[in-house]
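Proteins fold reproducibly. Look at a sample protein:
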Amino acid sequence: MRKGVFQLDKKSIAVIATGDMGHGVGRVLREHGYRVMTCLAGRSERSCKLALEAGIEDLPDLKTVALEADIFLSILPPDSAVELASRMAARITEVSRSITYVDCNAVAPETAAEISRIVTTAGASFIDAGIIGLAPGKALPRFYVSGDDTSAMEALDGCGFTVIPMLGGGCQASAIKMCYAALTKGTWSLHTAVLLAAHQLGVSNTLIDELSASQAEDLERMRARVPLISADSGRWVGEMEQIALTFGEVGVPNSFHKGAAEIFKILAKTPLANETRESMDTSRTIADVVPIFAKHLHTSAK
C-alpha cells in the first residue's frame, strides 16, 4: 500500500543476484537512468557474465552495498532468501544506514514475514514483492508489491516492468506468487510425472495418441514445456516447498506440491540440469527427455 512518495533523485539500486531475472531487471533499470550495482563475490561464472553484459556495477562486498544502495532487490532462489536477508541485515546494522529492502523471491508469506522481521530489526524498510512473468527483454514482467509503504517500488513502474500494488499491507505479494506458481510449475511437474509413469509402464505411445485425440491442448503444453524445464529444476524444488508451506498454513492439502518438489529433484539430478537457458537444446522433444529423466527415478527415491 503506497503511503509516501519515494524520492526519485535516489538512483542507486542493488540487485542480488544477477541470474536470468536479476540481470534483466538490473539492465532495464540502468537503461532508465538508475545506478545499478551488485556484489559478485561467490557468484557463478554465468551470473558474473550476465552482470557484465547488463552493465551492472560490481561492488566488493555487502557492506559497500549497504553504504551505497538506496533500494536493495533480492532476486535469487528461495532457499537462499533468508540467508541473504540475514547477511544484509548485519551489514545494514554495521553501517547504521536505512535502505529499502525488497524481497522479490518465490517464498511463502510466512517466509517473507520472517525476512521482514530480520531486515526491519536492522533498520531497513521492507517491501514484499512477487514477480510473475519472464525477465525484462523477453517479456514485461509484473512485480506485485505489498507492505506498509510500497512507494519505492511504485516509483519504478514502467522501467522495463509493471509494478502492481496490493491493498492491505502484509505479504500478499508473496501469496499471489505462490498461488500462481502452484498452477504453472505445479502443472509442469504433473505433466512430467504423467509422462514418466507412462514411460515406466510401457504405454507412452498409446498415451500420446490418446492425448492427441482427446486432450490436444494439454499435449501441446507438455511438448512446449517439459523438454525445457530441467535447467530450472534445481531452484524450483525450493519454490514447490514454499508453496506447500503456504497451502499448509491455510489448511489446504499440500501433498501435491511436495510431490512436485520430488519431481524437480529428479530432473535436477539429470545431465540436462547442468545446461542454462542460453545453452539448452530447444529442439529436444518429450520423447528425447523422458527416458533421460526415467534413468534417475530409482536413485532419487532412495
Observations:
- The beta strands are 12-16, 35-38, 57-58, 71-74, 100-103, 125-132, 142-146, 162-165.
- The chain has a mean pLDDT of 95.
- The first strand starts at residue 12 and ends at 16.
- The chain has two domains: 12-170, 176-301.
